[in-house]
Design goal:
The complex is a heterodimer of chains A (528) and B (432). Chain A is mostly helical. Helix content of chain A is 60%, strand content 3%. The longest helix of chain A has 29 residues. Chain B folds into 3 domains: 173 residues, FAD/NAD(P)-binding domain (3-Layer(bba) Sandwich), CATH 3.50.50; 120 residues, FAD/NAD(P)-binding domain (3-Layer(bba) Sandwich); 109 residues, Enolase-like, domain 1. In chain B, the strands form 7 sheets. Chain B has a 5-stranded parallel β-sheet with strand order 3-2-1-7-19. In chain B, a hairpin with a 5-residue loop joins strand 13 and strand 14. Bound molecules: flavin-adenine dinucleotide and iron/sulfur cluster (SF4) (2 copies). One iron/sulfur cluster binds next to helix 22 of chain A.
Chain lengths: 528, 432
């Protein structure tokens, strides 16, 4: 991967000067950030409501003014001029600085929240977090936490950069509707509803309805399940909804629309990647090597999270069926039976579609089963795989939940592109992708022989899919990692790509000779 | 083992090589004097505009060639000795071949204008041209004004490129309306407006008289033939078409005219030597196609066909229905079948244009048989496969209009215009 520092700005390169209006906008945003920075330095503002509103307001206004001046005066169309000349979007100095600041923020957030001013052991908040107390009190009636502050930033980022994205793609209704959708789901489902839910029923755990297991890896933790079950009917309904989400709702929607219904329309990680991360989508690695790494990593995380979840549930189930029918033994057997069923059905009906990957699928399956058996024969109520279960759990939370999804996934946007987590680490994406590849109506259709191999599609694919490799062969794109963002189709200057849901038949159509040539030759070669 | 040598690593040569490799185990060498690896010439503009870096233009990763045992040779072929089947390079070395494929592409036209070889005057074809553009027109301080001569597809791309760096552009077009030698009048006029909307100083019916030099041999200004007006500029883009890049072949025994003459099997006058792509000239035109087809798709199709012949399945070059596409600033254009600027005899045009002047279609059909003959579509993407089928089935215009939705290829949720188009078609029928 070429992550070399790009000094494009220091050489005699095209000017990327900002207009006066944009400079003012940057100034406004900077003042907003400065207020937050002062709060971080523990400066206690006299009127928190006023200063918090000013900080968030200035950042919002700055971004809006900037976006207006960048896009509204220009004609509608693709706006990628200068992307590879700008320091921020081409791994230049600004890109690296942004990456380092973001990464530092994530490390502090996850591991040292006290530096943000989190009041420890019931003490009142100070610093940055205390600045957010009034907003948190307003929404849920409790003081802010580092997660509340983070959630506010996160939501704000999706909203204001979503606005920028809406202007940038104002000629493209697919992008408009999709972006409206992620903005809505973040604001309502991830931010507001959980806070209100807390207000209504303070026994419920924080629950973002759209955050589905295995992305929501603690859903089936003992404390989580217990607090659902102890919150009466609402709690039970929510828990059932959580189970239905992954086993019923997800397969149906993915069958009909591909994994995009989640990854680029609903998901919060996807939402941030599509909005705040939009300027970095061209930085994803398209090489075959990266694709290989992706498949190993993402499926390893999937196996890990499946085994971990089963292990977690395992620890708090009983041995005796007289107490509760679901005992450790029954549970493990059910899990193994379910996984085997999925595996067998896939191998029987989709062996061809899997091609060479069938081998890897089989390896993954047997490793999972082996781990479950080891779990069954060695696990106790406190230990799984001879490690105290709590430790294993927090190790997973640490490496996958924090380091991967936060620090690397978002902190490294300006270096590796905006979908590092979604591509290499998200277990949910792995499940959805598996289904998208084998059992979905979704594909990206290529338009006969019209491709000129220009490379715009591949360059702007945030998932690092070499779209051109398919398009120039006239072959539909059916890839497990495609999140259906639609940008490849948007940037294609020849109208070659169309995301669509159509029948399963002829979805995968390898071709050698493209449309437009001698029909006999096409028949001769393509029918073989 | 038979050694197949291909001169030129553009789309034609590379397609031929890829297919020969699929079909056989022959030794394959591709020669190029331009870049080590194949790149997409059609996307040069996006590098200058900052949408992509040059490395993104390479359709295959660098390991691809070795893995597929396609040897790459850098060098410029100076002469072809057809008797000893030997190539002589300017660099001094030689190479022998059993079969030779000439795919040397095109070069920009120059018409002997005074000053056409000055610094800051150039065409847009090769990677070298792109590099020169960065020298003479990197920004609007070094290049305060640019003039483009020639209103074709490359001319308008160059205008868009310079525009992206805020360099003011004067665009000299010989015709009375942009590209109206190819497009019907209304479409061409829509593009005139679109070009002007991007603040390009479009000068129709204007020819270049001469280019004037400063003391250092760099362009200072140009003079317009018709008005005698002098326009000062730091850069002149010559985009008045291309012609086959075959100067070094003219001295050999291989028969040439404007291009290397080939028959329908893509064979030249000398056995074991073939020519495909931009540099090949058909002895007789195929249907409505020009004898030299300088487009990406035809180069690729010739490569696909020739590979068959070279691997023992002798095949005629028999292209299917014509298609093409381009983009004019923000407006995408696709065409399937034939639409002429003026309808041919016994033909008529049905034209629909959206009031926002960014979308329109024109269909040509036969007024006696009603057969649908072709479509130009601007701002609405259409399915190649559907039109190809309709053209093969010789569907009539009514059928095509009433089934137009099946051909729509716009992204999901886009506004559809079929109803509007159908209504407007009905209206034209009533007025006839
Ligand atoms: C800016 C631009 C935009 C275009 N856009 C489109 C488009 O949108 N759609 C479309 O259909 N077409 C487009 N075209 C045309 C299309 O690119 C050409 O038709 C196509 O690239 C020709 O391919 P080719 O393989 O025949 O030749 P080329 O791509 O020209 O390859 C020939 C190669 O041979 C090398 N060579 C020549 N002579 C020698 C020698 N003596 N020794 C060694 N090497 C030699 C050259 O250096 C060159 O690398 C565009 C062209 C340009 C310049
Ligand atoms: S292939 Fe296209 S739609 Fe899919 S993720 Fe890449 S850019 Fe988005
Ligand atoms: S952007 Fe379009 S024309 Fe360019 S390589 Fe991709 S599919 Fe082909």
């Amino acid at each position: 991967m070429s992550t070399k520092l790009n000094f494009s700005l220091s050489l005699a390169k095209p000017d990327q000067d900002l207009s006066t209006k944009q400079k003012v906008a940057v100034g406004l945003g900077a003042i907003g950030l400065f207020i937050l920075f002062l709060a971080f330095l523990n400066i206690d503002f006299p009127n928190r409501v006023l200063f918090l509103s000013a900080a968030l307001g200035l950042i919002t206004i700055g971004t809006i003014v900037f976006a207006n001046s960048a896009y509204l005066k220009k004609t509608e169309g693709i706006k990628n001029d200068g992307v590879w000349f700008k320091s921020i979007s081409s791994r230049g100095i600004l890109g690296w600085i942004t990456g380092i600041i973001l990464t530092a923020f994530y490390i502090v957030l996850y591991f040292y929240p006290q530096y943000l001013g989190l009041g420890m052991d019931g003490a009142a908040n100070t610093g940055l977090i205390s600045l957010f107390d009034p907003l948190s009190q307003l929404l849920s009636g409790r003081p802010a936490s580092q997660w509340f502050v983070y959630g506010t930033f996160y939501t704000l980022a999706i909203l204001i950069f979503g606005y920028k994205f809406l202007l940038k793609y104002r000629h493209n209704r697919y992008e408009q509707i999709r972006t409206g959708s992620v903005m809505f789901f973040q604001l309502a489902f991830a931010f507001l509803i959980p806070e209100f839910m807390y207000r209504l029923n303070s026994g419920l755990p924080y629950y973002d309805l759209k955050n589905i297991w295995p992305l929501n890896y603690y859903l089936f933790d003992e404390w989580s399940v217990k607090s659902f079950l102890s919150s009466g009917n609402i709690g039970l309904a929510l828990l059932l909804f959580g189970i239905a989400s992954i086993f019923i709702i997800t397969p149906i929607l993915t069958y009909k629309y591909g994994k995009r219904w989640y990854c680029s329309w609903v998901c919060g990680c996807g939402g941030l990647a599509e909005t705040a991360g939009d300027s970095f989508r061209q930085l994803s690695d398209k090489s075959l090597k990266a694709w290989r790494l992706e498949r190993w990593l993402v499926h390893t995380v999937l196996v890990f999270s499946v085994v971990m979840t089963i292990a977690t549930v395992y620890t708090y189930l009983g041995y005796d069926s007289n107490d509760f029918w679901l005992t450790k033994g029954v549970f493990i057997s059910l899990a193994i039976a379910f996984l085997s069923l999925v595996f067998l059905l896939t191998m029987i009906f989709k062996r061809d579609a899997l091609g060479k990957d069938a081998k890897y699928g089989a390896i993954g399956y047997f490793i999972t089963i082996a781990l479950l058996l080891i779990l069954y024969f060695t696990g106790t109520t406190h230990e799984v795989f001879f490690i105290t279960s709590g430790n294993l759990r927090s190790a997973y939370g640490f490496y996958i939940g924090s380091i991967f999804s936060g620090v690397v996934g978002t902190g490294f946007y300006p270096i590796f592109g905006n979908r590092v987590w979604c591509r290499f680490g998200c277990p949910m994406a792995a499940i959805l992708g598996f289904q998208q590849r084998l059992l979905s109506k979704f594909r990206i259709t290529t338009n006969g022989g019209q491709c000129i191999s220009c490379g715009n599609c591949s360059t702007y694919c945030e998932m690092g899919i070499d779209v051109r490799a398919y398009a120039q062969k006239g072959e539909n794109i059916v890839r497990s990692s495609c999140v259906g963002c639609g940008i490849c189709s948007a940037v294609c200057p020849r109208g070659v790509l169309k995301l669509e849901n159509d029948s399963m038949k002829g979805r995968i159509n390898p071709t050698e000779i493209l449309l437009g040539n001698d029909v006999d030759l096409m028949d001769l070669i393509n029918q073989k | 083992m038979e050694h197949i040598v291909i001169i030129g690593n553009g789309i034609s040569g590379v397609t031929a090589a890829r297919h020969i490799r699929k079909l056989s185990d022959k030794k394959i060498t591709i020669i190029s004097s331009e870049t080590e690896h194949f790149f997409s010439r059609t996307a040069l503009m996006y590098v200058y505009m900052g949408h992509m870096k040059f490395e993104h233009l390479k359709p295959y990763e660098d390991w691809f060639w070795k893995k597929n045992r396609i040897e790459l040779q850098q060098g410029f072929v100076k002469t072809i000795d057809v008797k000893s089947k030997t190539l002589h390079f300017t660099e001094g070395f030689t190479m022998t071949y059993d079969k030779l494929v000439i795919t040397t592409g095109s070069k920009p036209n120059k018409f002997g204008w005074k000053g056409e070889d000055l610094n800051g005057v150039q065409g847009l074809y090769s990677k070298q041209d792109l590099e020169n553009l960065e020298i003479y027109a990197p920004n609007n301080k070094t290049c305060r004004h640019a003039v483009i001569v020639g209103g074709g597809l490359i001319g308008i791309e160059l205008a868009e490129m310079l525009n992206s760096r805020n360099i003011p552009v004067t665009f000299l077009v010989r015709e009375s309306s942009f590209w109206n030698g190819v497009l019907p009048q209304s479409e061409s006029e829509m593009l005139n407006k679109h070009i002007k909307n991007h603040h390009i100083d479009l000068r129709l019916s204007s020819n270049l008289k001469e280019i004037i030099s400063d003391q250092n041999g760099k362009v200072k200004s140009i003079i317009i033939q018709e008005t005698g007006e002098e326009i000062s500029c730091d850069f002149v883009g010559l985009t008045t078409g291309v012609s086959p890049n075959i100067d070094f072949i003219k001295e050999s025994e291989i028969e040439t005219k404007k291009g290397v003459l080939v028959n329908r099997f893509l064979e030249t006058s000398i056995p074991d030597i073939y020519a495909i792509g931009d540099c090949a000239e058909q002895r007789e035109a195929i249907g409505n196609r020009p004898v030299i087809e300088a487009v990406w798709y035809t180069g690729r199709m010739m490569g696909e066909t020739l590979a068959q012949t070279l691997c023992g399945n002798k095949l005629e070059y028999k292209p299917g229905h014509w298609f093409n596409s381009a983009k004019f600033f923000d407006i995408e254009y696709q065409t399937y079948g034939w639409v002429f600027p003026e309808p041919k005899e016994n033909h008529a045009h049905f034209h629909w244009i959206h009031q926002d002047d960014s979308k329109c279609i024109t269909m040509e059909y036969n007024t006696i048989t009603n057969e649908f003959l072709g479509i130009n579509t601007f701002g609405i993407r259409m399915r190649h496969e559907v039109f190809d089928t309709w053209l093969s089935e010789k569907q009539n215009i009514d059928y095509v209009i009433s089934h137009l939705e099946a051909a729509n290829f716009d992204p999901e949720f886009y506004k559809h215009f079929e109803k509007d188009i159908q209504a407007s078609f009905k209206k034209t029928l009533q007025t006839i």
